[in-house]
Task: structure prediction
Amino acid sequence: MSKVYQYDTGVELIFETGQDTEEATKTSILVLYPDETEGEWVISATGYPKTTITYVTIEGDLDQEGTYYFQTYVEWGANSHHKGETITLEVYPEYG
Result:
């Protein structure tokens, strides 16, 4: 992937979950932002192969420069869930 800059939209992020997500009741990306606040980006559909989650950034997702930490979160009902490995993404300042 080439450099990702602050305020970029349309950045495709593909995460390997290690689990078949086809029957999941909820899929999302847990986000730790550079300022150490937390967020969650909910996914409406999973990727192919069925063990991946694809997310395309929208306005406001990458509004901070610095290191983002991501974990996938997959739920198969209230009592069954799985978090994936932590993945980092460096977001550079505009013109950086």
